[in-house]
Amino acid sequence: MNSDQAKSGYTFTAESLRKKFRFSEFFAEKLITSVAFLSIAVIILIFFFVFRESLPAFKHRPKGTTEENRVSAGNKPESYGSNESAEALQKPETYTGAEPAAAVNKPETYGEVKDTSVSADEVNPDAKFRTSESPDSEGSLSSLFSNEWFPVSENPRYGLIPLFVGTLKVTLIAMLFAAPIAILAALFSSAFAPAWLREWIKPAIELLAGFPSVVIGFFALMVMATFFQNVFGYETRLNSFVGGAAMALAAIPIIFTITEDALTAVPRTYTEASLALGASKWQTAVFVILPAATPGIFAAVLLGIGRVFGETMIALMATGNAALSSLNPFESVRTLAATIGAEMAEVVFGDMHYGVLFLIGSILFIFNFTLNALAEFYVKVRLVRKIQGRGA
Amino acid sequence: MKEAKIVTRDLTLHYGLKMALNSINLHIPEKEVTAFIGPSGCGKSTFLRCLNRMNDLIPSVHIKGEILIDGLDIYQKKIDVVNLRKKIGMVFQKSNPFAKSIFENVAYGPKINGISDKKKLTEIVESSLKNAAIWDEVKDRMHDSALGLSGGQQQRLCIARTLAVEPEIILMDEPASALDPISTGKIEELIFELKKKYTIVIVTHNMQQAARVSDHTAFFYLGELIEFGKTRKIFTAPDIKQTEEYITGRFG
Amino acid sequence: MRLKNKIIGGAITTASALSVVLILAIIIIILVVTIIGGKDKLTWEFLTSFPADGMMKGGIFPAIYGTALLVIVMSIAAVPFGTITAIYLTEYAHEKSWIAQTIRFAVRTLATVPSIIFGLFGLGFFIKFVGVGMDNWFMGGQLRWAQPNLLWGSLTMALLTLPVVIVSVEEAIRTVPRELREASLALGATKWQTIKKVVIPGSISGIMTGTILAVGRGAGEVAPILFTGAAYYLATLPTSVSDQFMNLGYHIYVMSTQSSNVDQTLPIQFATTLVLLMLTFSLNLTAVLIRSRLRRRLK
User: B-chain residues within 8 Å CB-CB of A14?
Assistant: First the structure.
């Protein structure tokens, strides 16, 4: 071969075709690859930082009887930071004056206290003395499982139970509205509607997904709350029912879109076979298409739940925000996400309340991550099984 | 037969586990037209795409054997594929001009080769368009979109675009299969002109076309090279029965 | 039997059709209610003047301005990063490789993370980690970056909208025909030259759609900026990325829930909602139209 190469007139020579190192090519590839890893990095960073900021919730030991313990747990008082003079005046027992050094360390407090109503109820002159004996005293992790969420009281209690109950209640109500409506609408769009109509329905419902949740929240606050109150005649204007119904509006486009995709992905052969056997259009839709698309619909509902579970603005505006563990749908509730949204602006960076809010964030994130992973896994595994089943 | 420009030795290609080409040995002569014929799926296009290493883009493809051009094995590790492709032009089945002006389409190759001098570019574009026999039709609308041309014009523009890079070998993958008879005729005339300067390999579905334009013909069937020889011989007195059956239209 | 079938069939068809009608009706009701509630207040003056009398009167110019700044800074961050990720997924990664699959999973996860979590992350990462670090390194410990501001709010929002950009651009890149890539490579172009000169120009409309959708999303989200940069009232417009900003969505939220006299400012609230809704609605409508044209091209 080398002797061939020696012949004159040959233009394809090893010399002219030697591999070249192209810096721009190399650089572009490396840069693009590293940028692509950003999404993974962000997920990891979210997990890391949200969890890291929730550590104060674990660090604080139960408030003991000794002065030393009191000091170590003493970050708490700054939640009534210096800009809340009115608040401080109401409660002569605040520690603000007692620990000026700690207060100076935390100048970052900003925003206004919004939940004076909740905390005001809790003002109790005896609180200071009770703390030392009370089993669910500040800083005790076990208070997370209590039934009382009073984060800015003299004797703060961070019971997550009412928040969980509230969140689950709203989620359930929202899904009871959203799932049937969205799935039926998807069924109509994919199985019953003529093609031209379908091309209008899909983008129209996608537009609903583009409505900002603050707009939906505002609509719920101004219109839906009044409307439902007139219809049902309940007392509390803002409650989990109104919040749930409003959140259904946010969940419907998600469930609809994914269900619709799942329904249209069912092979035409299925439909044709069914129709050829003499089944009617609706029988085909209900007994053939719908079952074949179950994994997709299941995933759609899971993602819908995830959307509602973490929804903040609608919850803040339409659920009433009272941390009650009641099962009555017409009572106010406070959801996990709304608690973060409402209270983060009033806490002192690094204190227990701050840590608990981040802990709630971690819980929301993990829950959502799990739902998403479950939806993906479920769809994938089921699809693989179906394909293999067909192949065998 | 003139000296062989391209020689393949035991070229075998797999798509994943499926064998698509089985031990192909072929001599493609310089500055002549070699046609590959055969029924669809016989491997002729796959083989063509091996010659400029276009199959490298498909991750599941595995190739064994050698392809020598001027005696140089182009599948060696140290070969620069980008420069290799500059010397081996390719014209595709479906005309695929870029969504740019006619001028920019032809100037694309020279530009990526680092030619930025406007005058030089204009010269290259003009001569390439002339050599592709389309200059007269487009000279007054060089800056219009290439997508406004007819199918036949687009295909000749694609040939001009290929010529602008100054290759030595031109691979054509059914270049006229989507064209009307008049456009096809123009392309065939063009091929006849081009072979004075270039080594041309053309895959075609159309046996009359192979008979008209080529000097040599290779007949592929089921991933194997069945017969290769002078076009006149293949079309009048093939040695192998399968070839005869295909030529006379009994299958394929 | 046959009659029963007919009844069930009719019921199902009707119920499903009614569901669609219901959803569309809700969309229209929201639009109509907002328009009726806000149209009288919505004047040129309202759009261009500052709030006055402790937010009881005046306009919403700072909120519009702040929202615009937010989405601009956000896009500057999200669009290039999203586009590059999409290019990686379509052009460089092998479809089945674990890296590509992990990135895709991360993108989908990112798309479903509740927006309040982004807010927490912005606070914990940008303000308390990056911001504190910047103050220590560049400001000599002086407080400048370790507090909510336009930059942190925008970057937080950019993370939220990143998946929107990635998905749109990826979809658009896939509509660039393989033949064009091959033509470019066959002419001796390198992979990066092909991407730069053929793939990116061919997916410009998708990059635009992605940007529009991201802007529409970013303009409407409030939760991520609750503690990373939005302010209820500022007497002056932000002049630097280290300033806080006002925001339409946040304005609506605060006015409708926190203000001392909700009823008196009702027209302002409706008009602000109308502005925000029109803004996001028109952006999304544009994106839907471009996208449906793109999909037709694909067919």
Answer: 72, 76, 78-79
